[in-house]
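agent: user wants the full assembly modeled, not chains individually. Plan: 1) parse entity lines 2) check alphabet per entity 3) run joint structure prediction 4) return tokens. Steps 1-2 passed, two entities, 694 residues total. Proceeding.
--- entities ---
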Amino acid sequence: MSGSTLEGADLALFERSVRAATEQHTGDALDAALVELGWTDALSFDTRAAVSRLFELQGEACARSSALGRVVAFALDQELDDATAIVLPAIGRVDAPAVGGRVRGLATSVRASMFVVATTAAGFAGSTVDTATLETRVVHGVDPELALVEVHGEIARPDAGAVDWVAAVELAQLALAHELVGVSRRALALAREHALERIQFGQPIAMFQAVRHRLAEALVAVETAAAVIDAAWLDVTPVTASMAKASAGRSARVVAKHCQQVLAGIGFTTEHDLHLYLRRIWALDQLFGSSAVLTKRLGQDLLASRELPPLLPL
Amino acid sequence: MELHRFRRELDVWLDDHADELAPETGLDHAAVPTLDDHMAQIAKVRRLTFDAGWARWGWPERVGGLGGTSLVRAYLSEALTVRDLVYSGVYSMPEVLGPSVIAFAPPELSATMLPPLLRGDEVWCQGFSEPGTGSNLGSLTCRSVRTDDGWRVTGQKVWTSLAQYAQRCVLLTRSGTVESAHRGITALFVDMDTPGITPRPIETMHGEPEFCEVFFDDVLVPFDRTLGKEGDGWAFAMDLLPYERSTSLWQRAAFLHRRLADALAQADADLIDPAKLGEVTQLLYAFRARSRATVHRMAAGEPLGAETSIDKVLLASSEQAVFDLVGDALPEAITLGDDVTSTRWRSEFLYSRAASIYGGSSEIQRNIIARRLLDLGNDR
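--- prediction returned ---
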């Protein structure tokens, strides 16, 4: 997927620019900043660095961009102009958004045209359609800041030829897994800060073992997901990418549960930022397959084959 | 030797010598193997792999090794485990004790003692825990007193794996006052045939008497058997703990993968919940991924520390998740069967209950994670 890779000082500089962009911008402004700093180019020559750095930092900052669509377009080998958005699977689904002419999907923004991948008898095929022929709705939903766009409608026979949807799913799942880890890290940092500041019975609640163990469990969950993602990059397959997404989703839900409990009352209000991160976790877990669906599907496949995936080599 | 070549050549050698390496008791045999059988098999496999060179790679040349990256030690343990050639629970003892003894022992002592350990001619045990000292290692009371002849040791240890088989014991003793806590501890390298040492195996619920209590009654230990200097016992223990959580956990993950695969092949499909199977598979993959990173960090010479507590938590949760699934998938074996196969499944199921207890309980690990990794302040 990549020719040369970003290393040493170059990688550090790249990471610093991405961090600055995600901390300062969100939405269209972040998209523009990413083009400016060369992220789109990096995606093609060091896919792993581009995907892992951006999505983890975007998660930490709870920022929004069209990068997920860019990643899918890259994996599909489609040169997208700024006027075209990629249609992603419907909420909770992994399947291509169109089947038999019917489109049900999501997008990260509304553009003049939409690139839609359809499941066909022969595999997967794509087509570019005029957005005016589809119904779109900017979603408020559980995470209004994410501003997902719901896309519905009918399309004619796909005309842009065969595409590798499986590769798109792999890369999107890895990207989302990184984003979930980033969101989780920040949620844990907020809960940790609160535990050290909040005084009850004459001491910070961070002194109570019940609180400490919840935060420790949250860190174990985050590091578990991070380890699975790192391992998945060593050998990207539909199974490893899906395990990375499922682990990151499940871990993020564990983090959400423990952190909200540690923040208690204030964590249930909108006066503290935690709710933004919890909303992001619940939304991202449902993109390209939830942890629950991907996990059950993996189990079904293993039961059918009666074989475990190969050992991760040393 | 680098890892890829080692892996390729070892795999061929193991296939070529499969008959010689195979256990003489086991699943193909009528009698349930005992711990004695497992120990004899481990000794045989160590001898064959040492004499052929495999078990010497990754250890320093000054202790009889052939040098090179420690990654090959991890691979050797994995390869033997996935072929079901060694009893996983106690196989990795040299991986736990060897590196710190090399680091702390007088050079001539480690040069003499390591080869028979690696060749399986000798067994070592680890005398750390005491009846009154479980997680709080700094409170240990097994007394060592300086005399003209050497150290005189009196006290009791417990949970000492394999003490009844061991020729040597790596022993933590209280050389200072009890108030000196972690400062007054001295590590000794003790011959188990010294007069005054009595190991007593403890019967456990999984049926293999792996653990002992060991009594020390005025046991004489020469000064040249001191590991490090007087008072270095705490540093020795801290040096050793991460080794419990690198190569040996990688080996355990390989064991769990093998046994989950066995259960999946043997169980009736309707007794396995696909959602649970998927989750256990992911959890085991996560444990393996985490352990792989740790083994690579060790091989690169990076110091291992508190972050390995996460590895230990993952071992406990994945081992118990695997055998919880096995309990439902193979109910006859776990609950009723008295044949060789069932007895083994049941023993492994029961042993998995201890995974969140031994080597620092999951609660102790969470305390360490909270204090050292999350920097939540000292709670004591």
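agent: reporting back. Residues 165-197 of chain A form the longest helix (33 residues). Chain A touches chain B at residues 192, 195-196, 204, 206-207, 209, 212-213, 215-217, 219-220, 223-225, 227-228, 230-231, 243, 246-247, 250, 292, 294-300, 302-303, 306-309, 311-312, 314 (CB under 8 Å).
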